Amino acid sequence: MEENKITNIIKETPLLEWPQQAWTNLQLVRQNSPLIQCITNFVSMDFMANTLLSAGASPAMIHSIDEIPEFTPKTLGVCINAGTLTPDWLRGMMLAAQVANQFKIPWVLDPVAAGGSSFRLNACLDLLALRPSVVRGNGSEILALFKGSVDSNSKGVDSVHGSSDAVEAAKYLAQQLGSVVAVSGAVDFVTDGDRVVCVHNGVPMLQKITASGCSVTALITAFVAVDPSHAVEATASALAIFGVASEIGMDMAKGPASLRTQLIDSLYGLDEATALGRVRISHF
């Protein structure tokens, strides 16, 4: 389905209670199978692609500057992940963001380990200046963007701050950028600079699975692609649905490896009754 048709569906649909909103967004992804371009790191490609496929979206791992001008306009969402960053990949990221803006395609930034080095921080700040639709990071990443400085205590992709530590920074960034900012953690916070909502779904063992954060960012991109007019709702819904899938998967998992598999299966098989019964989103 073309983007304008998806937008019309959303405009005709009033905002719902949170569990129903999350289920409706997942259904829209399943029905429309939005093409989502992912410029991401080698570690996360497989998990991100399988997360999108299990949710009903269509992933494309396209990062070459030779393809982006022709390919990106065909997509309904672009996910840019700063994981294994190189100068060549950064040029592709910048170009994809610019093309997405030109064609009014929502794009989502995952500023992986933004405070880890000057090169990485400056790259993320340059991408941030292009005003993504959504920014999704952990507490340390959001604080690094807010402060605009390298974190001497950085542990790379691992956050040394709780998500609640970065709520005010997220609100400030959202206000300055006109973007939605999501802070992942034990509780996920989503803000547009005014409203703040909390997502309470998920399991601690997600921290033991590489690229789980990257994959939920890809899912956010798919949800925003089918609901671009309500980015807060789409972002919170994606975080909750991913969290519910992890909770169901955890009931069957023996450890991180099996949780990864069970999460993908649970996302694929998630039904309405389970979503309505388990999604936990509240206002801050």
Write the layout of secondary structure elements.
Blueprint: H1 3-11, H2 18-32, E1 35-39, H3 45-55, E2 58-60, H4 68-71, E3 77-81, H5 87-102, E4 107-110, H6 118-128, E5 134-138, H7 139-147, H8 167-177, E6 180-184, E7 188-191, E8 196-199, H9 212-226, H10 231-252, H11 256-269, H12 272-278, E9 281-283
Parallel strand pairs: 1-2, 1-3, 3-4, 4-5, 5-6
Antiparallel strand pairs: 6-7, 7-8, 8-9
Helix pairs in contact: 2-9, 2-10, 2-12, 3-9, 3-11, 7-8, 9-10, 10-11
Structure characterization notes:
The radius of gyration is 17 Å and the shape is globular. The chain has a single domain, classed as UDP-N-acetylmuramoyl-L-alanine:D-glutamate ligase (3-Layer(aba) Sandwich), CATH 3.40.1190. A 9-stranded mixed β-sheet has the order 2-1-3-4-5-6-7-8-9, with helices on both faces. Helix 3 runs parallel beside helix 9 and helix 3 runs parallel beside helix 11. The protein has 12 helices and 9 strands. By secondary structure, the protein is an alpha/beta fold. A hairpin with a 3-residue loop joins strand 6 and strand 7.
Largest sheet: 9 strands, mixed
Number of domains: 1
Architecture, according to CATH? 3-Layer(aba) Sandwich
Low-confidence stretches: 1-14, 155-159
Order of helices and strands: HHEHEHEHEHEHHEEEHHHHE
CATH superfamily: Ribokinase
In CATH, what is the class? Answer: Alpha Beta
**Category from helices, strands and their pairing:** alpha/beta
Count of runs of 4 or more consecutive helical residues? 12
- How much helical structure, as a percent, in the residues? 40-55%
Over the alpha carbons, how many angstroms does the gyration radius reach?
17 Å
Mean pLDDT: 91
Number of strands: 9
The 3D shape can be described as globular
Q: Remind me, CATH topology? A: UDP-N-acetylmuramoyl-L-alanine:D-glutamate ligase
